[in-house]
């Protein structure tokens, strides 16, 4: 019976192979535009004119047991070149057992303390903080809100540069995410390079095209319109949920390349795995929750979207009948393109690829080898640039008659092909790290050459970890846990290092 089943499946392999190829072709077409992003990110970014008006902002800092770093963040805020009479700093000491609240108040922040063991995500802390702001000040009394993590540091002109974007009419703005502990460990370096890659391949081109880039946890500014009815994003990854929801509602999410802040990266594999698993689970949740609305937006605009918060409707009627109609059409195209792009970002491509590979290229292919044997099968696959290169020099072939031996060797060859492709992918990602070190060297802290070489070799592990954590996230229950922050780097240290580098 088993042999009959394997034979039946193996005989159908050509049909399944056609399905595999069709899915791959569709994904290639859908993702082709990202190659354009990579080219655009090298040369272009959106620039903003100096603001004509200074706006009133609130800075929100959710913090859990952050006594080691929060004073440094608040110090960098107080050293901004912006009119700080227009800025109010709020801290929510969330389930803290240390001196976070005491230090925050001593440094001039308005601090609320929250104790809730059941609702422990960063999103719930922000929800609590917005409720307190509404009671004591009114959410709409501030024009915009910044969100930072307690381990962040702000370059002295950060708020001024973000204000340039806000004054230009931008409603959601993210910024240049640098790393204050780049060289502390190879784990920290993978994160640092990841953020720099995101800047070049995501933020810069999307900002130029007036689409919607993605908000990444911290270092962003948004209009008070979004919290008119309070903060709604309490999932494991509130940033992903906010991004998807904002795009669904028609908001543009832009990027300011001149606004620089510094972030502390995880330094241990254990912490990195835990964080990436949470990201992966939150990513899947955002796809399930908002993905259908984004899909509908591509075809129907905002007509079928269930609104969680209301956006002030943009009207072009005052521009005249012709110009107004044209602008409305362009806005519709922009919104649909942004919805498509965001849906692609949220789509769990790694899951789709692993399922189709396990099912077709591994299991069903093994069955086909059992039925037909292995005839002149090349050991070197041409599915990657490395394979195409090596085939010019070596091309060993494998031949095995049908049966269980062919089945086993077929499975091994399928695994080898996958591994060979990943080796090529690893080498390509190493080159990406080299590219980032070259193109972003002016903004990086000084790193010894030996560490740069090491980081180029270890950098691909970021994507490898991300791939496996998204597999686990499908089955594993994930909870939100804090990441310990201990770096004592200050904004003065970074400024001094920058001055010394320029002097060399």
Which helices and strands appear, and what pairs or packs with what?
Layout lengths: L1 H10 L1 H19 L1 H11 L13 E7 L6 H9 L8 E8 L5 H7 L3 E5 L7 H15 L7 E4 L5 E2 L3 H10 L4 E8 L6 H23 L11 E4 L14 H11 L4 E11 L5 H32 L20 H26 L2 H24 L1 E5 L6 H6 L6 E4 L3 H36 L9 H10 L2 H13 L17 H13 L1
Parallel strand pairs: 1-2, 1-4, 2-3, 6-8
Antiparallel strand pairs: 4-7, 5-8, 6-7, 9-10
What can you tell me about this protein's structure?
It is a single chain. Helix content is 55%, strand content 12%. Residues 304-313 have low confidence and may be disordered. It starts with a helix and ends with a helix. It has helices at 2-11, 13-31, 33-43, 70-78, 100-106, 122-136, 158-167, 186-208, 238-248, 269-300, 321-346, 349-372, 385-390, 404-439, 449-458, 461-473, 491-503, and strands at residues 57-63, 87-94, 110-114, 144-147, 153-154, 172-179, 220-223, 253-263, 374-378, 397-400. An eight-stranded mixed sheet has the order 3-2-1-4-7-6-8-5, sandwiched between helices. Strands 9-10 form a two-stranded antiparallel ribbon. The radius of gyration is 25 Å and the shape is globular. It folds into two domains: 2-31 and 349-439, no CATH class; 57-346, Spore Coat Polysaccharide Biosynthesis Protein SpsA, Chain A. With 504 residues, it is α/β, with parallel strands linked by helices.
